[in-house]
């Protein structure tokens, strides 16, 4: 399978890895989860998020048309506010130049705010709505090519209208991790998609300024259109929130490469994101 085919599979399946799974809190607002740091609910005028918020997040994102402006705000945000929010998330998501270790750009940005949910049968797909309270989002893709394969990464920045909505975005991750440690894209059986296995909370790094941090880890494999499957690949998905801003790093690791090294690079990328918010 060529690098181009692998890239296509990632963009179709992992690409929106943004935002999958969720975070549940104890009654006192703290979390007992090893992958979550500082998860107390935000204190704001908005209602505190509940532990049973419906899942959103990680899913396949449609590629925007060239030169399209797909970052319109959800929830009726004023046009001027939406433009400012989009400019902010565009600035936050890391460029290829901000990565180290020979990463290069892997296609155009995506500004989708589509909402993805986990079904009762652990299939992940869009529910046709927008993520609640999400004003703007920027997904930016890079890859690092090796002799036999590639490592792919996505940095994402999301601007919410309220801290409670931003907290809910991360909180969703824990719930899905617990309920569906093994799941698949809704269209995997149709000949293209991704299966995830052994999904669990990882160890959350300290992120300066963050109100909460969550890490998800596991394995995945891609289904190609010819019916074959990729090798099993490690992935790591890190996210951090500061007030109304959520930043995320998703890394899909070359199966022939050192997964620990790549996960360290993902943590470095999250630290870089945090210096910009």
Automatic annotation (TrEMBL):
Region (Disordered) location: 28-84, 177-199
Upper taxonomic lineage: Bacteria, Bacillati, Actinomycetota, Actinomycetes, Kitasatosporales
Highest taxon in the source lineage: Bacteria
Record keywords: Signal
Signal sequence residues: 1-26
Feature: compositional bias, Low complexity: 28-57
Descriptive protein name: PknH-like protein
Basic and acidic residues: compositionally biased ranges: 177-187
